[in-house]
Amino acid sequence: MAYRVLGRAGPTQPRRARRLLFAFTLSLSCTYLCYSFLCCCDDLGRSRLLGAPRCLRGPSAGGQKVLQKSRPCDPPGPTPSEPSAPSAPAAAAPAPRLSGSNHSGSPKLGTKRLPQALIVGVKKGGTRAVLEFIRVHPDVRALGTEPHFFDRNYGRGLDWYRSLMPRTLESQITLEKTPSYFVTQEAPRRIFNMSRDTKLIVVVRNPVTRAISDYTQTLSKKPDIPTFEGLSFRNRSLGLVDVSWNAIRIGMYVLHLESWLRYFPLAQIHFVSGERLITDPAGEMGRVQDFLGIKRFITDKHFYFNKTKGFPCLKKTQSSLLPRCLGKSKGRTHVQIDPEVIDQLREFYRPYNIKFYETVGQDFRWE
């Protein structure tokens, strides 16, 4: 019987030769596989250290089979001088955080933005009431304290200012109140440089009543100050009013307004009547909401008149189980002033008031 010759094996050793050849082939295959596995693992390890994508990964994870057709590693990224093409995000990548032109924040908390609206004045006119009333609106988020950025803290920069703001959603307005801005000469230009589209709210009040309220507040802190009459006049018998006293000068509204009109059109400034804010808070706040471009959410149902304080307070809301009035510093009983002093101040303010009415197109009826 004839036998096939395998390699150098003789005709009497066919089976042994086959076994040796098979063992040799199997050994080579195992060596190759082990070497390939080690190289691939080494590449994977280096890719983890260097932040490169893994090789030989399947198209999806989960319960699919691990053995898939392998694909080569992604080519190395471009050098810094080369533009990189945008790549599609991985399916399992986390959702990106919201970002805005001013600052970034999380989707739930919103974004810290520079204010789109400011209550810029005036002191003792009713600015705190407007702030507390407008904060009831779901589309408005307001800073509770006065940051005094555009008059005292401007050197800290816009990033510092923005960091003070509450987080807002895209649909909400960020607002802050500092009534001293209205009489600060640099404030209009600084606010304009922040954003020429800023909406400005000015709460005004009869300048004589405002001055008395201002004096009453100062007297509660400094009981040894001179009398209201002594501070108001340089020479009362001659009717010379001391316009250097801040309590008097603030009420010369038209002079301060001229500085604002150099930077902002009148349509961008809304004037709230401090008197009507007491007698008709819903009406005044309705006009504020219209000016801000938000729906009229705050209505008569939100207010009740507090006879003790002498002005309206907020009724209990969904977020507050108790009615909310302004603090103890609001609604103080004014110091009694000689009626003749009041008449003299009314005459002093009359020309300024008339010019103010003509400029803003409203008659506040302070005479």
UniProtKB/TrEMBL annotation:
SUPFAM superfamilies on file: P-loop containing nucleoside triphosphate hydrolases (SSF52540)
Pfam families reported in the protein's UniProt record: Sulfotransfer_1
Location(s) in or outside the cell: Golgi apparatus membrane
Protein family: Belongs to the sulfotransferase 1 family.
InterPro entries from the UniProt entry: NST/OST, P-loop_NTPase, Sulfotransferase_dom
Membrane topology, from the record: Single-pass type II membrane protein
TM regions (residue ranges): 20-38
Superkingdom per UniProt: Eukaryota
Compositionally biased residues, Pro residues: 73-83
Keyword annotations from UniProtKB, A to Z: Disulfide bond, Glycoprotein, Golgi apparatus, Membrane, Signal-anchor, Transferase, Transmembrane, Transmembrane helix
Cited PROSITE patterns: PROKAR_LIPOPROTEIN (PS51257)
Predominant localisation class: Golgi
GO molecular function, one term: [heparan sulfate]-glucosamine 3-sulfotransferase activity
Record-level GO cellular component terms: Golgi membrane
Disordered: region residues: 59-110
Gene name for this UniProt entry: HS3ST2
Residues binding 3'-phosphoadenylyl sulfate, per UniProt: K124, G125, G126, T127, R128, R205, S213, K330, G331, R332, T333, H334
Name recorded for this polypeptide: Sulfotransferase
Record field: compositional bias (Low complexity): 84-96
